[in-house]
Amino acid sequence: MPLRTRTTYLVSHLRTLRTIRFRFCLLCCSIFFLSLVWIELVTRQNSVNEILIQEALENVGRDLRYSNVYRKTKHLPKNLKYLLLWTRRDFAPFSFLEEGQRTFLKNNCSVINCYVTADKRLFGTDYTKFDAIAFNGRTMKSYKLPRKRSPHQKYIYFNMESAENFPVCNTKFDGFFNWTATYKLDSDLPTPYVLIRDKNRAIVGPKRRMQWKDNMENVYVDYRQTIENKTKMAAWFVSHCRTKSGRHIFVDKLQKALSTYGHNVDVFGNCGKLRCPRGKKSTSELCNLLLQKEYFFYLALENSFAEDYVTEKLLTAMSYSVIPVVFGGADYSRFIPPESYIDGRQMNSYQLAALMDRLARSPRQYSRYFSVKRDANIVFEVELDKLVMNTERATVLYHRKGKEPIEVTDDSQLHINADWINLRWLEDFQLTITEAVISLGPGYLTAFFKTKICDMTISK
């Protein structure tokens, strides 16, 4: 073989070997890398599986209904307190609770040894084994109550609805409950819609005697641009038109009074012609941004009059740069500073319209209502998980080790609304009963007689 041919062959062979060697190295590296990835995935999955298995075992261990499956009763908590929801979960606050301890664990509660259930047969048919039984006043029936009762149990009355709409006037409930948990601030477990927290997240209100900081700073510079861009007088977001408070009558009278100044109330929702804008954000958020941008006042009108009955409507105004005009049966100074709102029941419609017109024309005076927003120590918020908060606060069940008897509450006016019984609100509109029936609809007459019967019942 000629020398040149032999040389060419050798060079070609070397190149082939190099190519093979490179591909082999590349294959080895790929295999090594994929092995690392596989090991990481397996390790991570095993870790996740272990966590899931442990969590499942813990959940099963906390739930007595699965004790036969779990077969390790020694792992079941010994200090659980059992709360039975006697009425169904359809309505707040019971609708916030999941079975067992789940809700307390999810909310990082300081006390988690409360086991909530709607299963009346958790202990067979013996209701006396529950530490407490909760009743929702909205669905509670006097003919569907536990037949036997232990002197060591607590019966707790819950109601987030107005006493005007769901009064308790059956004498069968005299001395029946141990605790009350309602929006009323004098409840054993107050459950207001609005909470006031300090900068450390501690709850400081609402309460019957709130000590508000005198904070009338000049905040005009901060809000000048926002105020000067507003062009409309008032907005009302509403879904239920005819309510016992007669708020639609209030709006009709205010509309008439404002028209003398060239203003009006824009009504959004089922009871008006306007609708909130639509977009990527939620409809309610877009509504609120529109409110802040264009309107001077927001009508926070409750559907019924009852002491301390203040819903989240109030916080819509407190969360945005707009002055709330409130209308309800509460003393609003228990919930927000007196200088931050206008009480629509403290003046007639023409006086209210004159005040609103004057404030809208004077940005400096208008901005004084926003002084409270500068107080960094106070935060207003809606607390939705009422039952969680109050069940956690019910530490008497947690600390009670013995089986001592528990006192009951002797209150024949457990959830009665004096404003509705006295019908004081009719004076606000200067209406007769006949005029009220015409304005509020036939349902008002039925409610009126129901209230009178209830009044006579508790007066006996």
TrEMBL record:
The keyword Transmembrane helix applies. Residues 79-193 form the Fucosyltransferase N-terminal domain. Pathway: Protein modification; protein glycosylation. Keywords: Glycoprotein, Glycosyltransferase, Golgi apparatus, Membrane, Signal-anchor, Transferase, Transmembrane, Transmembrane helix. It is a single-pass type II membrane protein. One of its GO terms (molecular function) is fucosyltransferase activity. The keyword Magnesium does not apply. Residues 228-380 form the Fucosyltransferase C-terminal domain. It is found in: Golgi apparatus, Golgi stack membrane. Gene3D superfamilies: Glycosyl transferase family 10, C-terminal domain (3.40.50.11660). Its EC number is 2.4.1.-. The chain crosses the membrane at residues 20-39. It is an enzyme of class 2 (transferase). One of its GO terms (cellular component) is Golgi cisterna membrane. Belongs to the glycosyltransferase 10 family. This is Fucosyltransferase. It comes from Arctia plantaginis.
